[in-house]
């Protein structure tokens, strides 16, 4: 496990916590942020809420690495950008996170990271990208139907992501 992934995963797990089944959450039952549908897709078979509850942190980490970190090609992004894109992928879905990144760097927004997106990211200042991605995520949150219920928590998560992505040396 790379240090960058371990750092980003630790951040996500702080915000995704343990087992939750909030009646207003459209994701339904989750554990470590892994939904029943995601776990079912990962395991390739039907699962129950009890299976979600029994999910281990280790298996959650494997899912996050394969389905989110690797899908966003985070190992090929600058550390701060990988950190916020990974968090966005977990929170908004991989395709939406990638589209936010692509819109931020001004390339075609197709939801898949390829050489054009990687090139545009490489030519930009990581701190500027992280700040712009955070701003775009805040607008997205504000437009969600459940913002009144979950908005403060989402805002806290986003502020923590911004702080975690930008070491003091980059923020200046």
From TrEMBL:
Residues 10-93 form the TtsA-like Glycoside hydrolase family domain. It comes from the Bacteria. InterPro entries: Lysozyme-like_dom_sf, Peptidoglycan-bd_3, TtsA-like_GH18_dom. Pfam families: Glyco_hydro_108 (PF05838), PG_binding_3 (PF09374). Keywords: Hydrolase. GO terms for molecular function: hydrolase activity. Residues 96-158 form the Peptidoglycan binding domain. This is Glycoside hydrolase family 108 protein. It comes from Glycocaulis abyssi.
